[in-house]
Amino acid sequence: MSIASVNAVLLLIARGVICALVVVLYRIARFYQITSGRRSRYQWFGVPLVLLAAAAVIDVLFAGGPNVLGDALLLVGSASLIGLGYNLLRLMTGSRS
Predict the structure, then answer these.
(1) What integer pLDDT is reported at residue 96 of this predicted model?
(2) What is the number of domains present in the chain?
């Protein structure tokens, strides 16, 4: 097993953990919408999940050089996750934060 394949496996594990945390945040938003009746837009958490997972796969498949597509997907997925997370925070705390 070469260093490149070990790097690819570790990258997939790290990004898999991040995707699992996005799923947990999705479940929190869904639970909040069901229990409070306020719209949390939990369905949109699938967008950063797909983008971050696609970025991980593209980074592993094209690991030979600079990868603009993988970095762009990572940027857009992270920015959408930050926006959705902030929206959920404001909704759950009642704009007290």
Answers:
(1) 64
(2) 1
